[in-house]
Amino acid sequence: MTEVTFPALSKDSPTAEGVVSTWFVSDGEAVQVDQLLAEVQVDKVAAEVPAPRAGVVHLLVGEEATVTQGTPIARID
Amino acid sequence: MTITESPVVPAPRGSHRLTTSKAMVEAIELEMERDPSVIYLGEDVGPYGGIFSSTTGLQEKFGAERVIDTPISETAFIGLAIGAAVEGMRPIAELMFADFMGVCLDQIYNHMAKIHFESGGNVKVPMVLTTAVGGGYSDAAQHSQCLWGTLAHLPGMKVVAPSNPNDAKGLMISAIRDDNPVVYMFHKGVMGLPWMAKNARATDDVPDGDYTVPIGKANVVRQGHDVSIVTVSLSVHHALDAADALAGQGIEAEVLDLRSLVPLDRESILESVAKTGRLVVVDEDYLSFGMSGEVAATITDVDPGMLRAPVARVANPDTPVPYAHGLEYVVLPRQDRIEAAVHRVVKA
Amino acid sequence: MTTTAHDTPRVIAELDSATRLGLYRTMVLARTFEEAILREYHADKGPGFDIGKGLVPGEMHLSSGQEPVAAGVCANLTTDDAVTATHRPHHFAIAHGIDIDKMAAEIFGRETGLGRGRGGHMHLFDPVTHFSCSGIIAEGYPPALGQAYAFRAKGTDRIAVAVTGEGAANQGAFHESLNLAALWKLPVVFVVEDNDWGISVPRSASTAVASNAARGAAYDMPAERVEDNDVEAVYAAAGRAVARARAGDGPTLLEVHTLRLLGHFEGDAQGYRPELAEVPGRDPIPEYEKRLRDVGLLDDAAVAQTKKDAHERVEAAITFAKESPVPDPTHATSYVFA
After folding, report:
1. Please, where in chain B does CATH 3.40.50.970 lie?
2. Which of A15, B10, B12, C44 has a CA 20 to 30 Å removed from the CA of C309?
3. CATH of B219-347 given 3.40.50.920, 1.10.10.10, 3.40.50.1460, 3.20.20.70
4. All domains in chain C, ordered by first residue
């Protein structure tokens, strides 16, 4: 099981909050390594989150919900 | 629920979820891989990836010779694209905001759009002019316009405006392959950008690989028999949201996504209104002398008897887009105004 | 700060203490305003960044770092002179003497704003000080020509100052304006704020000449380039240009190498800007403060007082804005025609 965490986009503030703006995969979907999982936004920085490995992805947060950097947003089994 | 017409594909294929902006970029990427004469030029399209993410990652992949940052010189670089197209390349030039067309309109409507005609068909201009349109995020009078009515009014250029990722990708591929100048107008509100409020339909499953969506063909995105809502771009989403609400009130609305303004799919408009007898046109461009009047005339030119009620036009008034949020949201043709218009035509 | 018409010195004075302190105070006021807008703008856009959200929605282009240009130029003007500015207008508006309350209210989209909330931060119009700005690159130049033309037609020695960025110097309207102003010897001062970046594109990638001052020669127009974001050098150069215009000797092109401390707009992560880490160290206001301290014109008490005055003035404007009514939605289509 691999956790996918919300990336640390704000260097000034490690506990900054952001959102998962868009999920590109569904809960329970089989994903490949490097497949685009999500686009996230903290303050003025947006970033893509690729899958760290292949497997079945489970989504832990919803779109537009507030998430603190470093929080797990998905896991891949 | 969105019902999209199946794109023209030769064999079964996989799909993946994309936002509209990523679908647009994927289309450009596929064509740039396939055809070395395709280049993309505009302001901040290089490392920045386009102000509205129209070229994200493309310069990294294809280099600065093919994805080119230009000076703030629209007349010069759009004119340059025209000349390159005349000599056989397939350039894509980006006008950052459609609102900026004033500084370069001569190149667009007197050159890009007229060379083929003036040459008796001997010279082609196979280029794409991409441009961001639309409001709803407080960018005020000079940065919130749609202006497809203005461009569609001027002969010689095709005009398309996708509302969703599927059409964004297929129409871009069609536009690049078209031997005519195609103006590709992407509404900032449909791009699925992480820094702007977005509709759920800004992200969708998109077929892998290349496929085309025909230019000049509208799409029935929701079937219904009580009223035809004919619209384009972001307003398609507001119309679908309105249709969902109206269904709960026993009114089944048909929503026709025009997808192209030039050529205008008049057949599909006539077919829908022949069925429903009631027409609501939603247009985020200015009310008068534009798209909404053209859609209404499509019916009255052929058979006004088809209509069981006057046409309702839900458009931006003939007013510059105001800055203050409360004022802007009065002038935009959003869900509440669409619902009210449907009620008016259904009761008439 | 731009003086009112009746006490304008017509002769450009040497850089005396009053002028120098005035330049410093203007820059501090402009910066304090931008910092307040920055705070208000970001206060309610989160948790991610929704550009359309909050009390100050939409695009925001802040002028922090470019204060020396506005302060140095406008100290040579009166409120009878016209200034046309860009999408990054606040420092020029403040330096030229606009009503800060009404500007803040306009930025907050309120009925008490300069444009009754219709225009927003890129479209500020103040007939009292003949100040205007526009969001279309270089398109502020041609109307400035017209204001200059009218001032001369009325037999006055009032002038127009037209401001753009360095990116605008590659736009058609820039060149047409320079040629026409030179040809008709219009009383205009063309100011180019070269902050190195046209959004994400550096000058080296957009402009065929190293300095836009070189372009003056193409129109037989005197031109100067001021380096180092130096407010006193700007003041002196602008003084020469203003004097030339008032004397009926025609336009001048004045380029100032300045500094964009922040992004092009708020929300710009500036990933394209390699020198980002050293930018704060080039802030012109602490630099000028140090210069004035070194000659005994400023000390801790004076600096603190200047900042306090600026803070109070700006916060009063923000409060005025926030307490002002939003425009009546039933009047959304008003003011299209007179």
Report:
1. 18-207
2. C44
3. 3.40.50.920
4. 5-9+20-325 (3.40.50.970)
Residues 6+ apart with CB under 8 A from C112: C101, C102, C105, C320, C321, C324, C325
Beta-bridge partner residues of C192: C164, C255
3-state SS, one letter per residue, for B288-311:
CCCHHHHHHHHHHCCCHHHCCCCC
Supply the ipTM of this predicted assembly.
0.92
Q: How many residue contacts between B and C have a Cβ separation below 8 Å?
A: 142
Whether residue B143 lies in the annotated active site: yes
Contacts for C150-158: CB closer than 8 Å, 24+ residues apart: C151/C82, C151/C187, C152/C186, C152/C187, C152/C248, C156/C80, C157/C187, C157/C246, C157/C247, C157/C248, C158/C78, C158/C80, C158/C81, C158/C82, C158/C187
Catalytic residue among B111, B116, B143, B187: B143
Identify the band that residue B1 occupies on the pLDDT scale cut at 50, 70 and 90. very low
- By the 10 Å C-beta count (0-12 exposed, 13-18 middle, 19+ buried), C137 is classed as buried
- Please check the confidence at residue C4 and state whether its pLDDT lies above 60: no
In a mutagenesis test of the B interface, which of A6, A9, A20, A22 is the best target, namely the one with the most B β-carbons within 10 Å?
A: A22
Domain B18-207 fold: Rossmann fold (3.40.50)
Q: Which of C254, C268, C253, C144 is CA-nearest to residue C198?
A: C268
If you write DSSP's letter for every residue of C11-53 in order, what string do you get?
S-----HHHHHHHHHHHHHHHHHHHHHHHHHHHTSTTTT-TT-
Domain that holds residue A72: 2-76
The pTM (predicted TM-score) of the whole model is 0.94
Question: What CA–CA distance (Å, rounded) separates C163 from B49?
Answer: 28
